[in-house]
Amino acid sequence: MRNIIRSLAFLLPAILITGCGPHNGGTSSGGAPSGGTSSNAGAGGKMITVYLLPKKKGLAYFSSCDDGAQQAAKELGDVNLIYDGPTDGAPEKAASLIETWTLKGADAIAVSPNDPSVLAPAMKAAQSKGVHVLTWDADGQKDAREFFVNQATSEQIGDALVDAMAKDLGQPVGKVAIVTATLTAANQNEWIAAMKERLKKYPQMQLIAIKPCNEDQSVAFQVTQDLMKAYPDLKGVFGISSVAFPGAAEAVKQAGKSGQVLVTGLSTPNNMKPYVLDGTVKSVILWNTQDLGYLTVFAAEALATGKLKPGAATFHVGRLGDKKIQGDNILLGNILVFTKDNIGKYNF
Predict the structure, then answer these.
(1) Rounded CA gap, 285 and 283, in Å?
(2) What is the C-alpha to C-alpha distance for residues 43 and 317, in angstroms, rounded to an integer?
(3) Which end of the chain is less enclosed by CB atoms within 10 A, N or C?
(4) Nearest Cα to 178, choosing from 209, 215, 214?
(5) CA 148 centroid distance within chain
(6) Rounded Cα distance, 86 and 189, in Å
(7) How many Cβ atoms are within 10 Å of 15's Cβ, its own excluded?
């Protein structure tokens, strides 16, 4: 009997340790959370649950960002990453997801807000519950998040777009229009403001219209068709979202106006390769979307573990090295221009 008691005393601590559950939404015997990345806890033994919310799930742009985010989660080793969002881009659905994730005990939520005013209450409520909230790709209300993971400054993006159009036109003369995602997208409104400022450098380029496509490529196609009918002397179209750009390019191509109406904008190289190769598009402006997702998850993990605090000037991000922090903006800071000469080198 005495030997049995000794054996039980020896085994009890091991049984208790084995029975301990994971932290906040971590992996269990059922595996990783739906849509998430399962990994072993880091040196501290604590798993961090990070939710990544795109404006609209299913777009190639955001899927590419998710690829980089998953790489970061795997590399860090202490992150359970869940990527999800509304497939129709509805901000009310995005706000509902934030509320659900807060109740589940999220450590950090990274939000690309489609409509900052709609998402702000849910983001603030999450903060009040101790959840670290940051924005990425598009900013929201500043008091509803701690940091914004910014692909580039609005000035860099606006300047690159306008300069590309001026170069592609040969002579920067004529009427141009902008097809944006939505009229409530804060980042795109900031880009438009920067574009208007840069257009002052080219006084003979006249901005005649700004039209939304509601993040729908077919709507962007129709809007561009309507613009060409309303302005027969239209010289250029800026498509400043990942679906506005290919939609506008397809409209120009089908109208038989490739080379007559220039199209430039922001989208992934894979989306735009056919239009670059057939001459409808000469320049594609973007940043490395995988790096943006990668940077966002590193920032979320650092916030949740206390490694990143307000006032920091730089932030070390794995394979990306040190990234600058400008105020409360963490800058990816690399604008890429894809042309017929280099677009084949990229695959995202």
Answers:
(1) 7
(2) 18
(3) N
(4) 209
(5) 11
(6) 22
(7) 9
Tokens found for residue 9: 């005393």
Beta bridge partners of 143: none
| Cβ neighbourhood burial of 190 (10 Å; 0-12, 13-18, 19+) | middle
Q: ∠ CA(268), CA(330), CA(64), 5° rounding?
A: 25
Task: Give yes or no for a contact between 173 and 205, defined as CB atoms under 8 angstroms apart.
Answer: yes
Q: Which domains does the chain have, with CATH numbers?
A: 47-151+289-333 (3.40.50.2300), 154-286 (3.40.50.2300)
Nearest to 37 by CA among 90, 76, 63, 7: 76
* Chain Cα centroid distance, residue 21: 33
277-295 pLDDT, tens digit each: 999 999 999 999 999 999 9
- Half-sphere CA count of 74, side-chain side, radius 13 A: 8
Counting Cα atoms < 13 Å in the Cβ hemisphere of 168 gives: 31
Please write the tens of the pLDDT for every residue from 164-199: 999 999 999 999 999 999 998 888 999 999 999 999
* Sheet containing 174-180: order of strands: 205-212, 174-180, 234-239, 262-266, 281-286, 336-338
Q: How far apart are CA 114 and CA 95, in angstroms?
A: 10
**Predicted confidence (pLDDT) at residue 41 exceeds the cutoff of 90:** no
| Token couple for 323 | 């990234």
